[in-house]
Amino acid sequence: MPPLPAYIPQTQRGWLAVLLAAVLISVGGMALQRGGASALPTTAAPRVGFLAPDFTLPTHTGDELTLSDLRGRAIVLNFWATWCAPCRVETPYFQALSQQYVDEVVFVGVNQGETAVTIQMFADNYELTYPLVLDENSQINREYAVFGLPTTYFIDADGVIRHVTPGAINQAVLEDQIKALLAP
Question: Is residue 79 part of a domain?
Fold first, then answer.
């Protein structure tokens, strides 16, 4: 048998990565198949089809919000900040649709690293009525693998992530995603 090379050539590294990914996906699929729908895991980097990571955070009004307490209703979870220009553009769409779908969908804004006073001024300026939570140390942003603002997660009534939109979203696309979330 010839000796193994001291390194793996560049062309073979790609194939090894593909093979490793295929094995991991297969093993994960078998684990889900054995556990059934009730065994949907949360993940370190949440993905469509997986349970949304739970959290409890303070709201800008001093209350607390726990994501899992909202089960039974669809959730639009928007990661944002007051200094984020695209966030300011899409905020009126979120407010309008939160009123239009008030009985069917819970909108939650997860603010990244700002104070309750700053968030309250923003909420007053935009006349926001949906809950805004304070992620002061960006822990939840990290758990949800938010690498840029805004980012929006669409979560069904069972707590399963159904769609993720990184970046700004316009009102028509936002409403289309809500309708898809509510479709039987």
Answer: yes
Helices (H) and strands (E) counted in the chain, each on its own, are 5, 7
**Token digits for 109?**
């804004």
Same domain, 31 and 82: no
Residue 45 in domain: no
pLDDT tens for residues 10-27? 555 554 454 444 444 443
pTM for this predicted structure: 0.77
Q: Which domain holds residue 29?
A: 10-39
CA distance to 51, 53, 141, 158, per residue, from 44 (Å): 11, 9, 12, 19
Q: Is residue 72 part of a domain?
A: yes
Residue 57 has pLDDT above 60, yes or no: yes
Of the pLDDT bands very low, low, confident and very high (cuts 50, 70, 90), residue 45 is confident
